[in-house]
Specification:
alpha+beta; 8-stranded mixed sheet; disordered N terminus
Length: 570
Amino acid sequence: MRINTLCIGKFAKEFVSLALIAGSMWAITPTTIVHAKSSSSETDSKSSEKSESKSSEKEEKQSEGDIEDKSTRSAADDEEDVDKSGASDEESDADKEEKSEDETTSSKETPSALTPEKLPEKLSGILSSVSKSSDWGVKVVIAETGETLFESKSDEGFIPASNRKLFTGALALDQLGPDYTFRTYLYHTGTVDANGTLNGNLVIIPSGDPTFSKTLYKASHPDWVFRDWADKVKAAGIKYIKGDLLVDCSGWDMNDMTPYGWPSRVINDSYAPQTSPLTINENLTNIVLTPGDSGQPASVSFIPSATGYPTVNKTESGKKGSPIAKRIVNSHIELRGGVSAKRTIWSFPIDRPTLYAAANFRHHLMENEVPIEGSVRLHTLAGVLPAANSTNTIAMVQSPPLIEIVDYMMKRSDNHMAEQLYVAISNAKLGRGSYGNSRRLEADLLTRAGVDVRNIHCYDGSGLSEANRVSPTDVCKLLTFMRGHRFAQQYYDSMAVSGREGTLRSRMGSISGRVHAKTGTINGVKTLSGYLTLSSDKTLSFSFLVNEIKGGSVSGVQDRLCTTLAMLVL
């Protein structure tokens, strides 16, 4: 058998080598189910609603790859996730001021009925105030009929930012259904002798499950899955493993697991983690620096544990100044500068998260005194490994229902969940997870929605890609199609709600509960698309895509457009 080996720099004892071997899993029957109860995905947790706007401000203050916005934390916070939600797009402080001013103005106006005939003049007047400071694409249609009520540059392509998640959420529900659950298996090959020696390998079959963290689970540790698995291996009577720890990635195209078009300035930010078949802690690692003796390098540790992660430590304990961390993608992390008497923590995207997760599992096996003689490896070629069955399966993790994942992704604008969902859909439906395969499934959905897919250019699942282009017409066609979908209610309920939930919690309080929509914010872009319920119980589908922002009250104007539409009488 031919073995292809990819070296992992200085991953030392834990991150040995990455060999790509054959593997295939079929006819899986679980014997052990590990399913922790999910916690509420309400948006009251302020720590999980860091805005894309604020993230963009942070990006502009950073040099490429240098992270200087560190935080100092107490020992009690050792296991806490840092910026676990990704970049939710709650508005920036400037937008809050704009919005507040706009709502104050609108609150002084006496609401009056607005007819469809007067709507174009009213909306055009609002848009004229920002026409020179930003580029707006707008479309408003009646969701029940598809009739257009207003449009401006509606067929032009715009960067959608996190409005891209409207497409990802629709695709997930359409292809998998709201009750679908991801299942990740751990099993062994070979036999276990009377002394507890496994004469074979431990094998993980990943499903792309994005919930291997504390986000949707009541768990004490971000690596709770692998801690639990280590306990189950020991409980199965296995005391020593002669073989390797393998992750069977034969159901994934490992050469097509990277989104296209993400700007280089975001690659080190916690809201832009890598996509992978097996996940851990939203594919983020928290680096902890603790000062040692004066003049000596500070000690470096990782949460979740990652013994052997390649690190160049040039820090000096007791030296004045602030430490700086720099991630060299797919190579190492460099730490330098003075370290004071306080601990310092950074949150970084993990390089090769599947391997990192497997190495973390190996760490917990070793902690449980179950050593592995072999190495940690990924297998990508199908047809060699024995299949899992009812006698060799050690554990199975089943995710919360898909709708809980979609709901969290949409209301919190979680990029990690969006990217994982996008590629995992094609793994579940086609047996081969990749961006290209998921785009093909999406093209089928959009064709059924009446969208000309030749005009859609999207390269990720979250909307961080600056190469993405959609038109307001495309967005409204998708929204209108989903209002008639068999999972229309679940899709509608997953969105942020004006004045109540998610990234619209503090916006449009005057029409609280009437707007269900998705916000979006990246550099120079602010978007808002979704549904607005009229007093007649009819629904509007709308899309406001704003690019090339040079100034002006963008979020405030978006809110004013909605409050104006709310006065419409059909």
